[in-house]
Structures are given as C-alpha cells and as structure tokens.
Amino acid sequence: MDAPVAPLPAAGLSPGGPARLAGRSAAGLIAKSDHVRAVVVDSAAGVAE
C-alpha cells in the first residue's frame, strides 16, 4: 500500500530531506538498540557478581 507522495514546499524540504530523515531515524534506532544491549550486558554482569 503506497502512500501518495505529496510535494512539501511549505515545509521547505529538499528532495534529499525525507531520505536524510530516514537515515537519521535508522541511526537513532541503531543507537537505541546499542544502548539496550549495553543495559542488558550490565544487568547480566550485575547478576553474575
């Protein structure tokens, strides 16, 4: 189900804007998963002690 692509001149987005935003979101998700992994490792280390 493809959403219609509407031009966004009011938002001042260049054609690269949505791609840049998606890249930023992906980077944020990766950083978040790394943080979760670090918390899990810290918790496991705490349980092991």
UniProtKB/TrEMBL annotation:
Domain of life: Bacteria
Protein's name according to its UniProt entry: Uncharacterized protein
